Amino acid sequence: MKVSARLKRGRGFPALSGFRRDGGRDFGAVAAVDKRFPVGVAQGTGRGRGRPPVIIHRPRGAPAALGYGLLLLVLGNAGCRPGTTGPTLADRNRAPVTAASIPALTLVEGQVVLVEASPYFTDPDGDSLSYDARTDAAAARVEVAGTLVTVTAVSSGRAILTLTARDPGGLAASQSTGVTVRPNRAPVATGSIPALSLASGQTALLEVTSYFDDPDGGALSYQAASSNRRVALASVSGLSMSISGVAAGTTTLTLTARDPGGLTAAHEVAVTVVPGPMLGFREDFDAGLEAWGVEQADTMLSDGVLALTNLERGIAGRANRVLEAPINFWEVRARLGRTQTDSVVASVILATGHERYAWYALDVGSGVSVGGNDTNYRFYVLDRSRWPPENRWVVVEGTYGVSDAVHDDAGEFTEIAASLDGSELRVWAGETELFAVTLGDDHPTRLTAMGLWVFPLDGAEARTALFDWVEVSGTHTAGAATEGAPAVAPLAAAEGAATPGAAMAAAARMLRLSGAGPGAR
Known about the structure:
Low-confidence stretches: 1-60, 62-81, 481-521
Distance between the termini: 100 Å
Structural class: mainly beta
């Protein structure tokens, strides 16, 4: 016999009211459990239509003297089906069951595999399942994220992997499989890679997989390194090694294969780089400035001379030109001067594309003190690592001074030349060598762009430098003209500079912060 009763919400064991007695006998109470509601939780208020019902049933054969039994579960409206007074015993939760056997795993030390858990269990009620896993030995370690089980082979040996699926009601099913971990064996270098010869600026590709084998069948990763990056560069993308000639010379490349456990094998490759084609340009300023990007400057061409005048107070005016391709072993020549004495310098700016030492600058003109002494020539390096807050153009020791070969009165011209052969930097004024120094191994030798700039020394505008002609030459080297060039310089970070010329522009803005004190601009 079934009896309905109203429930009071919010109590662990709700009180009952309005139930009937049958023939003067008390009924034992047995809960008809619906898996969607936990024991002892009341849903709804028990008022109005659709109030939550409770089914009270006297078990067959129960004695009349049993008295009132314990009501175990309160159900909400979702527990009822249309046309019934409540759920029946058929609505009880059913546990998950296994759907397929987990195959045994055989791994090598360091190997990691992913196991999708969902195909190995099913729930007869269609419930979503959660998963956990464990192993009984240190040979293998497991982690679970959603339905994916990550199995990591830690050390040689055997372990039992137990995977458990659990439904929302807490019922579970488990199954186990064996994990065997074998000792890892190192990859093996097979055959030999033939020596390679290429020109500077040339790039060769080498497929790497045929030169290595892994006895455990593990997937190998690869990396390459050059013993002399000034001669050749090497890198690996996917399964191909790229070798790029930088400058004439010889070097040894090391190609390394690594297995999932970290064991390696290596090949060495002898590389010879010969000089590539000569590249460069000569500009006599008699056919316009189409190849130049002019910023913060007025320009005037007269009788083959470029007059470059800055427009903004304290900011350099500049004309920049990106090379058609990067060059090494370069030489830059120019004939330049100025229209005002001690208030302006003419500069040749050399963009390297280097992450740290982004630009070199050769200044001509008196009015700049270095070490407490006036100079009429100076060579600077822009060191980007010094920002913030004190990033400055830094004068290279031994590259400044005063020379009678520099003609820097108003309207006078000086023919200057600068060359970088390997790491040896040399500068002349006419036939006079101003200095020869050796740059550090970390200083770049490559040239990607150049600029002609006018620097106002007095923080004013309308300062003019003169450029009669300029000539650039060098051997083609690895990479594109814009490859690796700083896209954004410190003071131009918000402006989104995307080319060497645009990045070079930011160096001029640094004058606003750095001034022209000793050893800095």
